[in-house]
Automatic annotation (TrEMBL):
This is Uncharacterized protein. It comes from the Eukaryota. It comes from Dipteronia dyeriana. PANTHER family: ZINC FINGER BED DOMAIN-CONTAINING PROTEIN 4 (PTHR46481), ZINC FINGER BED DOMAIN-CONTAINING PROTEIN RICESLEEPER 2-LIKE (PTHR46481:SF6).
């Protein structure tokens, strides 16, 4: 949807789509993230749908917060508590993956400590908590390889 993404514009777009799909009288709930414009959208949409008596339980269950978004916010707050550790792991992973020579040296360390190199060293995207989890999980799996790399590489 082109801008603006304010509550009124979003409401108008949703109303248009509901009518086009012929479902404007059978809406039970709508799942949204926590953007402030969505609060306005829900208020306006609820008013519109209530006029047409199209809401179950007067719209009590219309706005359902996105669980994935809420979990992401909670996890991001938790990750701030260990930000120093996550930063060190992230920088270590970046270092090991920065060049073909470093990748090869890390692979040699993995072989030296008899770990599975196919599992892979993961780099995270800081805005996606599950990618940070995957990075930490892979870094922990390769902890013996990190120790071997520390002995083999003074950097």
């Amino acid at each position: 949807m082109p801008p603006p993404h304010d509550g009124v514009s979003l409401t108008n777009k949703i109303k248009t789509l509901l009518c086009a799909w012929k479902i404007e009288n059978i809406i039970f709930s709508i799942t949204l993230d926590n953007a402030s414009s969505n609060n306005s959208l829900v208020y306006n949409l609820k008013s519109h749908l209530n006029i047409n008596k199209a809401l179950f339980c007067d719209g009590e269950f219309l706005h359902i917060r996105c669980c994935a978004h809420i979990i992401n916010l909670i996890v991001q707050d938790g990750l701030k508590e260990i930000d120093g550790v996550v930063h060190k792991v992230r920088e270590s992973v970046k270092y090991a993956r920065a060049s073909q020579t470093r990748k090869q040296k890390f692979l040699e360390c993995i072989k030296r400590v008899h770990l599975d190199s196919k599992r892979g060293l993961r780099q995270d995207v800081p805005t996606r908590w599950n990618s940070t989890y995957l990075m930490l999980d892979s870094a922990i799996y390769y902890r013996l390889a990190w120790t071997a790399l520390e002995l083999a590489d003074s950097n």
